[in-house]
Amino acid sequence: MAHSNDTHAVAIPLVKNFTFTGGMRITLLVGMAIGLLSLGLTYLGDDGTHTRFWSNLLHNSVFFTGIALMAGFFMCASITAWAGWYTTFKRVWESMSLFLIVGLVFMLIIGIGVWQGWNHLYHWADAETVVTDTIINGKAGFLNSGWYIGGTIIFGGLWYLILSRIRGLSIAEEKNGNDGDYNYHQKIRVWAVAYLPIAGFGSAALVWLWIMSVDAHWYSTLFAWYCGASWFVSMISMTLMLLMFLKGRGYFSSVTPEHIHDIGKLIFAFSIFWTYLWFSQYMLIWYANVGEETIYFKHRMDHYPVLFYGNIVINFLLPFFVLMRNSTKRKFGSVGFIAFVVFVGHWLDFFLMIKPGVLHTAHELGGHGGHGGHAESASHGSHGGHEAAGHAVEHVSNFTSGFTLPGFLEIGTFVGFLSLFLFFVLYSLSRASLQSENDPYYYESLQHHT
Questions:
Q1: Those residues with Cβ within 8 angstroms of residue 82's Cβ, 6 or more apart along the chain or in another chain
Q2: In this predicted model, what pLDDT tens digit does every residue of 174-220 receive, in sequence order?
Q3: In the chain, domain spans
Q4: 3-state secondary structure of 318
Q5: Which residue in 69, 158, 214, 237 has the fewest CB atoms around it within 10 Å?
Q6: DSSP 316
Q7: How far is Cα 176 from Cα 192, in angstroms, rounded to an integer?
């Protein structure tokens, strides 16, 4: 049965070029306008520090930049591993990966805001705190605006340059190559191999700066893995939804239930891997009762219970039980629904990573909590850090709009960023042939079956 599906798919005439219609453009432009309006209303409705505005910008910028990073990473890993199954839709990953340039611009805007003191996203950016807080002072060689901006430019710039080079070679292969010609593919492989360690190690450093340092006293050796897994599941879910959207409009007829099945398996497998990392961070830290680490989870359990427990339900239990059946992964409706739920669920995961720490910092630096807690930590070391964090909990225990749970402005901002991401990806898809027929693995992908 699987083989007959593949044969049928190959027989369908392939639409080689995607047309980015005016209707699609208008819809996405309206979505971007909603996002811009939401950000504007958030800024105008904020207090003097505009913490809600900056945290919404950070949240969505990090989320969609990470999706682009992972699209490039998995594409390069597949190229390096001699994989061929994805080749028929590789243009989707190429287009998604190039969104890096847009995401990095947003991250640089945030970095400049940190440098100029326009926001209170990070406790380590406050000069007085660096002097009075022993823990943050000890991390000051890395946690500073120079590293934040410089690391974003250096690592992010290298990522984009490599991925844009791979994209260029891929298009040149389609235009100038011949069936069975490996010259272009060998060059692509060299760039793919170079990208993997740069993306792997560079993303860990930037994850520490962009996200983990929001809770400046806390650290986890698994945090970069945890964020990477969350980004990866989001990227795979977005890939599936994009393919379903495009197939519904007559494109990618070469993508069969066999390809969808494999994408569903990736969502299933990496949802379990994400859960393993979630459990490892939580349980091992809790079991050891390390003060400056445990407080990260205690604060979220006590004051963000809906998101904390909902996180594991949405991002593990639902995909696990729905996708456990092999046949479900071949049903577009079922796997598409789970992809959407998981995509939103991991957006909420990043919300939970960022918002509590930002609100803590806003209370401390914005005059609500002062610097007393962190001055105390200067004389008590890591134990003082625990007390300081615990002290901050007293100030943020009540419901805070846009922080305890996403509000309409957060949802509107998400819609805007999602529309911008899709506009960029669809525009990139329209700039080249959807099918890379001169890729040496193209016909293997057409005949793919599991």
A1: none
A2: 888 666 668 899 999 999 999 999 999 999 999 999 999 999 888 88
A3: 27-446
A4: helix
A5: 158
A6: I
A7: 20
